[in-house]
Amino acid sequence: MLARKSIIPEEYVLARIAAENLRKPRIRDRPRKARFIAKNGACNLAHKNIREQGRFLQDIFTTLVDLKWRHTLVIFTMSFLCSWLLFAMMWWLVAFAHGDMDPSTENATNSTKWTPCVTCVRSFTSAFLFSIEVQVTIGFGGRMMTEECPLAITVLILQNIVGLIINAVMLGCIFMKTAQAHRRAETLIFSRQAVIAVRNGKLCFMFRVGDLRKSMIISASVRIQVVRKTTTPEGEVIPIHQVDIPVDNPIESNNIFLVAPLIICHVIDKRSPLYDISAADLALQDLELIVILEGVVETTGITTQARTSYVAEEILWGHRFVPIVTEEEGVYAVDYSKFGNTVKVAAPRCSARELDEKPSILIQTLQKSELSHQNSLRKRNSMRRSNSIRRSNSMRRTNSSLIVPKVQFITPEGSQSASET
Prior knowledge:
Elements: H1 10-23, H2 54-58, H3 60-66, H4 69-98, H5 124-136, H6 150-178, H7 181-184, E1 188-190, E2 194-199, E3 202-211, E4 217-231, E5 237-245, E6 255-256, E7 262-267, H8 279-282, E8 287-297, E9 303-311, E10 315-317, E11 319-321, E12 325-328, E13 331-334, E14 342-344, H9 352-357, H10 360-402, E15 407-410, E16 416-419
Parallel strand pairs: 2-10
Antiparallel strand pairs: 1-3, 2-3, 3-7, 4-5, 4-6, 4-8, 8-9, 11-14, 12-13, 15-16
Helix pairs in contact: 3-6, 4-5, 4-6, 5-6
């Protein structure tokens, strides 16, 4: 307003606005990297520019199973309707070629010995109803085929074969959609966050996995892969470079007995891609750890696979999962409300390489944690003592306030007597 009235020069106003904008802190969010595997196990991948679409029709059964339910139901309905209409047209042509549609045949007597190919088929509607009765084997009894036309027998055989094929394909497709392996994977859960802590003197990457159903997963195995963008010495950029990392499992077959939630551990050693990463470097790393759990469903015998992933922001350094399995009245109880809960523990902030080169770092970290734990206990005990002293003093004050002082009474004779109430 002042600049418009020429009281303050316009150049001064613009310079002042620019200076105020520079003083304001600008917070730029770090661009989120696209995940290769979502938390629910879905692959975050889009296929584009596929020119050979005919390959999907060569594997028609898998294509039908992969379709959405609404598309599958539409195809299921249309396949039966089209087959009924197709054979209804064939039955109508057979009746028309034999002369069953001629009105003169309706008044034929028994002396003429006229026999139609299919009784009571005199229009396309009746031919359509007869086609439905043949394919779904209803058989109301009003329409029936005779031995007059060999062509009609051939059409009957052909329609039965086509109907059986459609029933087998569509019912098998619906059964496979309802019994897909990823449906069982919905009850296999992973912890939302992973942790890095010290176990047996080594830095370890750990996460928790559990099964919500009582029916077990047979021969369950866990695999971990690291997906990151790498550049080869030749200058080739690999956007999705997958590296397998070993899982610490005392069983040589790498199978786990998933009867209760387990903590899967990966020891960060020289073979691990996390060997040179410290706590400060973890937030700057552009990596994704993919966890794959495979096994056979006990009830159906179908192989299932559950997946999840952890990015750098979902890995907690210096934390440990709380125990959730307790023994209650001779039964092991699992508290799933604490499935992803973690607590802070003492862990060196350096990388595993530095920890191997200087083992004294771990000893110093443990000593510092022990001293801090003792100091916290001392502070807690001192606070308890001070609180108990304050409570005792307050109790004494309240008791002293309740004491009634002694009162002296003077008798008429001049003698004094003390009474206490």
